[in-house]
Design brief:
The structure holds 2 protein chains of 2 kinds.
Chain A: E1 3-5, E2 10-14, E3 19-21, E4 24-26, E5 32-38, E6 44-50, E7 56-58, E8 64-68, E9 73-78, E10 87-94, E11 102-103, E12 107-112
Parallel strand pairs in A: 2-12
Antiparallel strand pairs in A: 1-4, 3-9, 5-6, 5-10, 7-8, 8-9, 10-11, 10-12
Chain B: E1 4-7, E2 10-13, E3 19-25, E4 31-38, E5 42-49, E6 56-57, E7 64-70, E8 73-78, E9 87-94, E10 104-105, E11 109-113
Parallel strand pairs in B: 2-11
Antiparallel strand pairs in B: 1-3, 3-8, 4-5, 4-9, 5-6, 7-8, 9-10, 9-11
Classes of the chains: A mainly beta, B mainly beta.
Amino acid sequence: AQSVAQPEDQVNVAEGNPLTVKCTYSVSGNPYLFWYVQYPNRGLQFLLKYITGDNLVKGSYGFEAEFNKSQTSFHLKKPSALVSDSALYFCAVRDAGNTPLVFGKGTRLSVIA
Amino acid sequence: DADVTQTPRNRITKTGKRIMLECSQTKGHDRMYWYRQDPGLGLRLIYYSFDVKDINKGEISDGYSVSRQAQAKFSLSLESAIPNQTALYFCATSAGDTSQETQYFGPGTRLLVL
């Protein structure tokens, strides 16, 4: 069975600094990896996904994520954080079979001006 | 107009009452899902459906039931609500029959069981 770990409940970063939100996963076979963001009182919005190919994936709002197969990680990154990036971020994974996404517990990102 | 809609957006009910949460989508997707979100626990899958004749239990299906009335509609019922079902409920959809498709989420229903 697949699983996702987001080891940090909360990440604080100053505006303009780079940010990283960590995610590690466990699946049998090749992983399909996703990042979603949830703003207050809103549903989840898709940011980016890794299916195959280049290990560095670029997504919405300037976010990118790096797939590292040896470390089973898919960390979310942004070179320069904005206050408006403050939100709850979820990593999710599925395997190549016919299974739904499994989500991590979420990491709350707070960008301080 | 939103592609995935949920009604009601907020609901307060009492222990023992039966309630239904509804989800509709205009994306033309075959697959639909119900999740609940609790602080510190992330999103957990309740039920999912890959087409109109298909219903599957998720991680936490006890105390819930679903109905897939049409491709575009997927309802979640709490037959006898209890306080620990207080949560934020999300419906989601996805297309196709590959593992690559993205899931699209509705705005959520906030449920309080007294």
